[in-house]
Amino acid sequence: MSSTAQRAAGDSGDLAIETRGLTKRFGERAAIDGVDLRVPRGCAFGFLGPNGAGKTTMIRTLLGLTHASAGTMHVLGHPVPLERGQALQRVGAIVEEPRFHMHLSGRENLRIVAAARGPETRERIDPALARVGLSDRASEKVKKYSMGMRQRLGVARCLLADPLLLILDEPTNGLDPGGIQEFREMVRAMVEQEGRTVFISSHLLDEVEKTCDAAAIVDRGKVVTQGAMADLAAGGTARHELILGVDDAERALETLKGSELVLEARPSDEGLRVILAGGPQTVAQLNAVLVGAGIGVMRLEPVRHSLEARFLEITSRLDAHVEPREVSA
Amino acid sequence: MNATIAAQMMGADFLKLRKKRGTLIWALVLALAPVLIFFIVRAAQHSSNAIEHPSAGGLSGYTDAVRLLAMFFGPLAAIMIGTDAGAGDVSAGVFRDLVVTGRSRVALFASRVPAAVGLCWLVIGAGYVLIILGTYLLASGAPTPSGTLLANGLGFSLLSTGAICAVAVGFASLTASRPAALTVLIGWDLVASPILANISSLGSSRKLVLAQAVSHFSPVNLGDRGGRGSTVTMSGATGVIVLAVWLLAFLALGAWRTRTMDA
Questions:
Q1: What's the first-to-final CA gap in chain B, in angstroms?
Q2: Where are the alpha helices (DSSP H) in chain A?
Q3: How far is B181 from chain A (nearest CA, A)?
């Protein structure tokens, strides 16, 4: 497991965001309902849910844009709203689509925010513009920018804080495939090379799966499950599954059931479906056991768990009231 | 928040306003065009019949031009600038991005006021320069205002427009809607204030009208033409109190709304 993935699993015990029982009500309706969320530092964390699940409300509450109805929250170790100013000093955020003063240039828009952040921030304007590839267009009015350029300017605005935590709400909205790829690479660089935490709210499962180390799935205002990405997709535990193609399935099944390398083995349409007791390194041992028993192995394929399948499974079961739970390695 | 950050934030708000060409051009038109037209028409009348029409400039021209700038068109320019400053961030959708910086919302509100009043005064200053030019260039031998009167006239113009500009910042921040604030304040300034001032049955309660309190400080005779001159007598202290109450009330309401609204 990489260090990023370890951090994502919460090994460091150091959290960028922590909420307990966080609730936001609009009248009788709870937009977020008793959310316990733990976002480890130094990872890309996906906040995944269908439209209307409460993702943006959660972000707005965390940032103090709206008041929580109940519960507690800590951002970068500071209680919010009590120490909101200190908490947000090293936080950059894009909430919904990035908005700007259209009559000002990109650089001038950054100057506005830099002025509110403090004198040292002004020096970060040019590096931030360069980082997102907007240096040569920085003097143009924002109304002439494309959607993708505005997204990038929004990221540049976040970088003015030299953020330990970036909170991005549906950041790939409006981006073309090239822009999405660039964005994904930028997020990974921020996490892996600069050690920042990136919190990405999205309804795009594929995007979160490709970009993030860990995620929480939210629906109808509740966090249904959260944890490292691989564990989340696997359905709660760090399962390593294989599909085996053998020349004698019956004998192979008997052999596997007697092996301590295997938690579970059962026939399926594709062959034998095996859940390993250990990690992927035990695959070779398992192969040796089968070959040693005189069984011909024709196929040995790890099962790739799909977050999409897990997401649909979880959200479609919500009517049956599934209790939130945490998964970790 | 230290003075450097406060100055930077005011500078940023000033930048937003001065770069808004539509607002700035219309404010300049309101401050300059009526004064210019006034002097041109008066000069034309004087040149056609010098006996019946006094010179366009001089003390008489100065008095009328100051009234035009300080009590009629200057306040409209001030309302345009003030409402833009008060509701500009919310209208553009960037208020939340400023809140996310962690800076106090009251500080975000407070920096709008000096920026708006500063720009307003620059615009009004340009109008006043035009008045001085017209007053002296078109005097045609008529008596001209003293240096003291010129200074007091400038002070009065700045007080009159600065006060309504600050009120506009507060009111636009309260409504969070520039069109609404603009409509209400222009309606108040052009229609409601003169009507209220002329309803004599309201008695001394008319002192509460902002334009009446402001006009008390005029160094020139405003008369009551147009209904916005000093129609209600009040003491200097009353004028100061009414002015202060208007400013404090609207600035406090604007700050309260900025602090409590969902961004």
A1: 21
A2: 3-8, 55-62, 84-88, 106-117, 125-131, 147-159, 177-192, 205-211, 229-234, 249-257, 283-292, 307-316
A3: 20
How is domain A240-302 classified at the CATH fold level? Alpha-Beta Plaits (3.30.70)
10 Å Cβ neighbour count for B182? 21
Contact of A302 with chain B, judged by CB distance below 8 Å, is answered with no
Answer yes or no: do B8 and A108 touch at CB < 8 A: no
Distance in angstroms (rounded) separating the CA atoms of residues B129 and B147 = 14
Residue A138, class by beta-carbon neighbours within 10 Å (0-12 exposed, 13-18 middle, 19+ buried)?
buried
Q: In A, residues 97-156, which contact B (CB 8 Å cutoff)?
A: 98-104, 108-109, 111-119, 122
Per domain, the residue ranges of chain A are: 3-90+163-234, 240-302
| Residue A244: closest CA among A226, A225, A229, A259 | A259
Question: Reduced to 3 states, what is the DSSP secondary structure of residue B30?
Answer: helix
Least trusted range by pLDDT, from A75-79, A312-316, B112-116, B210-214: A312-316
Scan residues 157-186 of A and list those with Cβ closer than 8 Å to B. Answer: 157, 161
pLDDT for the residue numbered A11: 40
Q: For A117, which of B11, B101, B104 is closest by C-beta distance?
A: B101
CA distance B217 to chain A (A): 37
ipTM of the complex: 0.88
Architecture of the domain defined by A3-90+163-234:
3-Layer(aba) Sandwich (3.40)
- The model's confidence at residue A328, banded by pLDDT at 50, 70 and 90, is very low
pLDDT tens-digit map of B223-249: 654 445 556 788 889 999 999 999 999
Between CA B151 and CA A238 the distance in angstroms is 81
A51-60, A88-97, B152-161, B225-234: which has the highest mean pLDDT? Answer: B152-161
Q: Are strands A297-302 and A262-268 parallel, antiparallel or unpaired?
A: unpaired
Interface test with A, best of B13, B94, B101, B104 (most A CBs within 10 A): B101
φ/ψ bin of A235: left (φ > 0), alpha (ψ from -120 to 50), beta (otherwise): left
How far is the alpha carbon of B180 from chain A, nearest alpha carbon, in Å? 20
Per-residue confidence (pLDDT) for residue A303, from 0 to 100: 78
* Closest to B190 (Cα-Cα) out of B209, B203, B172: B209
pLDDT in tens, A12-50: 348 999 999 999 999 889 999 999 999 999 999 999 988
Contact A113, A88 (CB under 8 A): no
Of B4, B93, B103, the CB nearest to A116: B103
Using DSSP, state whether A22 is helix, strand or coil: strand
